[in-house]
Design brief:
By secondary structure, this protein is α/β, with parallel strands linked by helices. The chain contains six helices and six strands. Strands 3-2-1-4-5-6 form a six-stranded mixed β-sheet, sandwiched between helices.
Length: 188
């Protein structure tokens, strides 16, 4: 079974040897913290729609690997938790199908909330292996200096169109996370 999150954190796989495989039984458990930017700007150029396809694959991988998921959406006035540290389930498909873009970008608030939540979680489960997956177009009005989260991360940039601001690269660097553009990860 391919560990897609781990594989993508190591860069775009070029050959079969680049794929990481996951054993079904392992100790300690893994937690995948997924933050999804679903602001109005992600509707442009089918960005959120393509991200939903990638997220569906990641959720399926988490389910098969028995990883725990924490899912935080950033849209509207404030971020909203969908699940917090539960075992991945097929029920996430229903949430994903209904995910739409709109409103502002409370991404900075989502990152702050995620940082607080991770700190508490790490105290409760010190052996748990935590990973961050941030899906965003990086279209923020201002980008202050950010503190990195306490786990390895991958930022998937979904910004598309003829004019790209490129703020996701800056955001990934500040968070000390790997950076990938969604076009690198989609087949085709």
């Amino acid at each position: 079974m391919v560990n897609w999150l781990g594989t993508l954190l190591n860069g775009r796989p070029q050959q079969r040897d680049d794929l990481l495989f996951q054993l079904r039984t392992r100790s300690p458990h893994e937690l995948w913290l997924v933050i999804v930017d679903a602001s109005a700007s992600t509707r442009r150029h089918q960005a959120l729609s393509d991200a939903k396809g990638l997220l569906a694959q990641i959720f399926d991988d988490a389910y098969r690997q028995r990883a725990r998921l924490a899912l935080l959406t950033a849209s509207g006035a404030e971020p909203k938790w969908q699940v917090q540290g539960l075992k991945a389930s097929t029920g996430l498909r229903h949430w994903l199908d209904g995910l739409g873009a709109g409103g502002g970008t409370p991404l900075l608030a989502a990152l702050a909330e995620a940082g607080r939540w991770l700190a508490i979680r790490q105290k409760r489960f010190p052996a748990e292996q935590q990973r961050l997956l941030l899906v965003t177009d990086g279209r923020l009005k201002n980008l202050p200096i950010l503190e990195p989260l306490t786990c390895p991360g991958l930022l998937i940039d979904i910004e598309r169109g003829p004019i790209r601001l490129g703020r996701s690269k800056v955001l990934a660097a500040q968070l000390q996370s790997e950076y990938r553009h969604i076009d690198e990860l989609l087949p085709g």
